[in-house]
Amino acid sequence: MQELSVLIVDDEAPARVRLRELLGDLADEQPTRVVGEAGDGLAALDLLERAPADVALVDIRMPKMDGVELAQHLARLPRPPALIFTTAYDVYAVRAFELHAVDYLLKPVRAARLAAALARAKALRPPPAEALQALRPEGRSHLSCHERGRLLLVPIDEVLYLRADLKYVTARTREREYLLDESLTQLEQEFAQRFIRLHRSVLAAKEAIIGFARDGAEDADAHWLALLRDVPEQLPVSRRQWPVVKSYARQLST
User: Fold this and answer.
1) Crossing angle of helices 13-25/111-121, nearest 10°?
2) Which domain range does residue 74 map to?
């Protein structure tokens, strides 16, 4: 039987030890090799850069980056591992299956349930990013992009604006730009509380806007420019969006 490489992700060390021991107990039935352990989603993504896995055993509630957001980033990898959620909170059970997760294991994990999940792992695909968003409606804490063969994470609270250009979206932070393979519309829906649409191709972080100035008419569709903190760029505000943006401009002036 083919050996499966496994990544264990759980913020509790005893839970990681139990999973490793259970995998050892199941070695005759399903050979596995643990390629790494992580205590949160950020550490898990870092490990996967160096050691790809066939299966990820992922706790849902973790600090820094929880299991649901980790699953969103895993779904964007070129070769994502199969996903098995492990958690003590059975409120997630039905939702996890609806999201097409490989399986859902309630702690304390039992050997028979883990064996069944591993048997199914190779046949199922990761849950789609859109479905995972429904389980985490507050949105991700990080955006992800692929650059020179690496997965880079961009903290969403550092993004000043998002600009669509052809098939990519540029995320601008104070330090640099990142190219995202996501649609501006999807990002607007996910982060509606954080960003405001200025133009058909531009979303700006509300907290990054420091004022507005009249446009020099270089863009026929715009007559105002949004001024941002920390960067020199001035973003066009379309005539169509100005009535919505104007109400936010009044808030800034007060």
Assistant:
1) 80
2) 4-135
